[in-house]
Amino acid sequence: MKRLAAVLGDQGRKHWQARTAYRRLAKHLNAMPVGFPRSVSGVEKRILRSIFTPGEAEAALHLSYKPEPKDAILARASKHGIPSAEMERRLASMEKNGALLIKNPDGEPRICLLPFVVGFFETQIASMNAGLYLDTTQYMAEAMGFEYLSTVPQQMRIVPVEKSITPQHRISTHDEIRRIIADAGDSIALTTCICRKGRDMLGAPCKRTDRRETCMAFHDFGEMYIKNGWARRIGVEEAMEVIALSEKDGLVIEVSNEKNPSFACMCCPCCCGVFNMLAAAPRPADFVQSNFRAALDSDKCVLCGKCEKRCPTQAIKIKKDAVKIDLGKCIGCGLCAAACKPGALTMAPKTKQRTPPEDYSALMDAILANKKGLVGKAASTIRGALGIKR
């Protein structure tokens, strides 16, 4: 009887320690630039349990969003009772699970903890299952979607599809997808879209494309994907072929909001959870960063309707034999202009041009500096839901 009591007591302690580790990790992640807010249902704890072991959850508490040398992390963990050898083992396991990123500035490895999105959700290519996808969808609807959309500056930005841009635009290099890809050089990883993979598991495939290898990671992110077998290395020419096919399929190009982006997603409103919420907002333009908007030359318009069908946010409508553009809904993706053969639709630069942060660290710093409290996020969400310009 005493032995049984001891076993039950030991199991109870382990269960309590695990619950504590996940609760502390959720709080730690929520303090990051792109947070990890509490939901009504508590589904976020289930997500953490599916990705982190209790030991990894404890180890993650000693990681920052800022890339740091491994020795500094090991020393910090050691002070809190995790021996360096054990911490190294946990870090290696977390890297394979996609929870952290190793950057190599000047050849010196530095480690940082990734946010949930865009971050360690997207790295679950190998381990994705219907349960995790459903949990993530629920969490996005309950809490995370509002967190993501309310960041300032936005974590991602829209770059116009290549065919919508003409030489007259004199477009900045950070808005030109061809230049973004060329600058990535040999560090381009082509991977399966995590959202479309999840939708396939639910028997609800994408309505816009049959392709699944649509997303790309660049630089250190790209090397991480390739190293762990989540993606294959491709060259600039194949990357541009992916972009061309994505334009043809009507996918929106979203890149991380840096001068030299870490990744590029090919999004659609039927699969991407965040984009789905974005498209449903009265003023989607307020929740994205884009330097362009659609412009119409009505004299050239033949009312073919292709622009209306291609627009992912329903910003274009044909009413009473005329094309109407709702600039509050236009996100500057360029899909309408690329499809307009008469040239009636073009992409016009916005009056206020925004320059993205220098790199990933600068982006996270900027988001943290502008991070709103619970009241501020709620007010921003309410204004967005009511269609009030932010």
TrEMBL record:
Residues 292-321, 322-350 form the 4Fe-4S ferredoxin-type domain. The keyword Ribonucleoprotein does not apply. The keyword Flavoprotein does not apply. GO terms for molecular function: 4 iron, 4 sulfur cluster binding; metal ion binding. This is 4Fe-4S dicluster domain-containing protein. Keywords: 4Fe-4S, Iron, Iron-sulfur, Metal-binding. The lineage of its organism: Bacteria, Pseudomonadati, Thermodesulfobacteriota, Desulfobacteria, Desulfobacterales. It comes from the Bacteria. SUPFAM superfamilies: 4Fe-4S ferredoxins. It comes from Desulfatibacillum alkenivorans DSM 16219. It holds the Pfam family Fer4_10. Coiled coil: none annotated. InterPro entries: 4Fe4S_Fe-S-bd, 4Fe4S_Fe_S_CS, PSI_iron-sulfur_center.
